[in-house]
Amino acid sequence: MLRAFRTNHPRACTAALALALAWAAPAVARQSAEAPRFPTALPAGAALPEAPKATPVRADAFAGRVNALERVTACPKCDGKGSRVTRKRESRGQLSKPRITETAEECTECHGYGFAVTASRVGPVLDALAGGLAGLPPGLPTGPKLMDRARTVLVRVGSGGDLVDAVTAVDRNELTGGRLAKPGTPVTVAGEVGEPIALPGGVRAYPVLVDGRDLVLVRAPVINASPQRGPVLVGGSLAGAMTGAEWDFGRTLVLDHGFIVPRSSPQKLRSDDPAPDDPVANDAPRNP
Asked: What does each C-alpha distance from 193 to 160, 212, 218, 233 come to in angstroms?
């Protein structure tokens, strides 16, 4: 085929070019089919709902929600460490101190990932945190530290694997099933994010495709750890649906006062590490 391009014969060049295009067309079609399409702007005449009023949250209550989410997402059998450490005390005679050895084994409940395997308690706690992200008093001295803690735990939840699917199942089913909760209701879903859309007033909204067909616009997220593209976990307070225009993305809902974090694959925790807050385990010699 390359030799044909080097010849001066016009028919040979035309045939070679047609063959090259025919060879490349399926690959381009596959790439277009695999990559989800995202809107780059709102359709003409589209009207977005007003943001719901943020519910005020005291600093101690906000910290309590962050702590609660850390607890309920941690495996109860290994306290979220991914492993269980057993210690053995060996006597070495009356004149010598006893030898303490420890053995770390992968947790049989979470299989080393440290996440809870049941989501019934996680969903309400996650919704409570998502619904209060914009409620801290402005200018609060401890505000930045509290938001950093919230960001850390939300990013951790985003790497929860099957836990994310279980936690977001109810909201995902309501979204794809056409049911709409009342404004201000906390909503958490997982999907694919695209480039942000510029809205009037210098605000940006992140389009998130849920199940490849329904769209959620995360407007001005309070916690924004969004990748440029790819799977994400998002949440916030439901503002309502876009009205006044139609497009190819089905019904479009808007979330405000929320978060957007990457959804990544879960990683196993190191089973040979002792608990970081356990001085006995850290001081004890390890088995070779």
From this structure: 18, 11, 10, 9
